[in-house]
Design the sequence.
């Protein structure tokens, strides 16, 4: 461990005492004790270095070198939303600016009876018990298989926890509208630090489509979100995360999912922005006949670093998981994929498939891929495949022979490679908007 990590030079430890009184005004009363426990936990480890196994391919020196502050009080006009790929989609929207709830940018439609989408502090009193019972309990790897669990950014998020977004869908209900949780960074003078927190609870046989988007209007920032998802029996969630922050921002996210019997979780993880973008997705499958789908499309240009870590714990039998992660890298961009699948002793008849593919559009781009399988059951089907390469010369020749100019032919092939993931998104407006943004970025 780097000795610097245990000294008072960590900016997020140094600045904590000053910001704590402001944080205690936000959220629900029990958040305060969670914050105090979390800052102690984070302080044990601090900002990771390349010596830490889980971060050996990704440098987070910017968190030490850049000066970040809380940007509460920033204003964003509704007209500014037109600048965002998903800013104007039709959805039930809950917006945050620099981590602070922005009611003027949020929906105020009437919600179906028993359903809640909004901030934790405004949740009906009868939901407080359910929120407290789940909050902070799902985002943990304690007691699970493996020895390289790293939860420091969950602790950092919790230590600086302000307001939280809550999605609650009761038993048997389908939320017809897409739900859009929108996080905007806007600061022209300094780097802005925000810690978005989301709790999604779908009761038995409930269904919803949730979109989280992270974008920058002005300046740059460090965004450290944590999302917790609990799916009861037969619940179905399509969860799309879209990150397109400024190219001098740092984004480190953690998503934790807990699945019960026959539930279906689908993740669409899209990364186009950030100087450094790190995403951890951890699914604990704790019921029979579940399905877990992890899809991802990533585009890195210039000096971007896009790092994806996935982990699926198959703890019960007769479940399926499917991962398809695709990355496009150009210039000096770097990509990382580390996919872990753990099959527990009782998880017989598990069917797990993992695919990681990358296209390198320049000789200076780099992709690091590390699939991991740890299987403790004997009647399973588990496969993983990783391919890294350039565009197919045959496909390029085919298009060139039909009069397509070289640069456009390359763009079409790369677009088709990533669009295969975007086509899986079941909200047409989101799919179309992200496909258009993908084409713009590749152009």
Sequence:
């Amino acid at each position: 461990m780097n000795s610097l990590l245990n000294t008072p030079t960590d900016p997020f430890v140094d600045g904590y005492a000053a910001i704590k009184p402001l944080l205690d005004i936000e959220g629900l009363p029990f958040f305060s004790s969670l914050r105090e426990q979390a800052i102690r936990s984070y302080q044990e480890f601090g900002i990771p270095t390349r010596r830490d196994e889980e971060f050996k391919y990704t440098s987070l020196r910017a968190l030490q070198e850049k000066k970040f502050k809380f940007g509460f009080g920033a204003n964003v006009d509704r007209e500014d939303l037109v600048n965002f790929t998903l800013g104007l989609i039709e959805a039930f929207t809950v917006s945050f600016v620099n981590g602070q709830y922005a009611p003027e940018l949020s929906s105020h439609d009437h919600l179906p009876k028993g359903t809640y989408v909004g901030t934790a502090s405004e949740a009906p009193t009868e939901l407080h018990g359910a929120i407290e019972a789940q909050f902070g309990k799902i985002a943990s790897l304690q007691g699970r298989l493996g020895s390289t669990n790293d939860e420091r950014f969950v602790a950092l998020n919790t230590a600086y926890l302000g307001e939280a977004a809550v999605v609650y869908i009761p038993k048997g209900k389908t939320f017809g509208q897409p739900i859009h949780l929108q996080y905007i960074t806007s600061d022209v003078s300094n780097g802005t630090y925000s810690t978005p927190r989301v709790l999604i609870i779908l009761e038995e046989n409930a269904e919803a489509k949730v979109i989280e988007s992270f974008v920058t209007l002005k300046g740059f920032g460090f965004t450290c979100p944590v999302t917790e998802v609990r799916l009861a029996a037969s619940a179905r969630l399509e969860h799309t995360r879209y990150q397109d922050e400024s190219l001098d921002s740092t984004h480190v996210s953690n998503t934790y999912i807990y699945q019960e019997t026959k539930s279906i979780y689908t993740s669409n993880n899209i990364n186009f922005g950030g100087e450094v973008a790190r995403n951890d997705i951890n699914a604990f499958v704790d019921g029979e006949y579940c399905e877990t789908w992890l899809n991802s499309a990533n585009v890195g240009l210039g000096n971007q670093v896009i790092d994806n870590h996935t982990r699926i714990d198959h703890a019960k039998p007769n479940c399926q998981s499917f991962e398809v992660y695709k990355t496009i890298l150009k210039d000096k961009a770097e990509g990382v994929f580390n996919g872990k699948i753990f099959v527990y002793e009782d998880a017989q008849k598990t069917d797990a498939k993992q695919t990681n593919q990358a296209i390198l559009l320049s000789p200076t781009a780099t992709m690091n891929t590390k699939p991991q399988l740890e299987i403790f059951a004997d009647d399973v089907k588990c496969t993983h495949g990783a391919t890294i390469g350039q565009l197919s010369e045959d496909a390029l020749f085919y298009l060139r022979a039909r009069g397509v100019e070289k640069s456009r032919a390359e763009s079409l092939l790369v677009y088709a490679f990533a669009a295969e993931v975007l086509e899986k998104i079941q909200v047409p407006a989101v799919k179309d908007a992200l496909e258009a943004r993908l084409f713009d970025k590749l152009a």
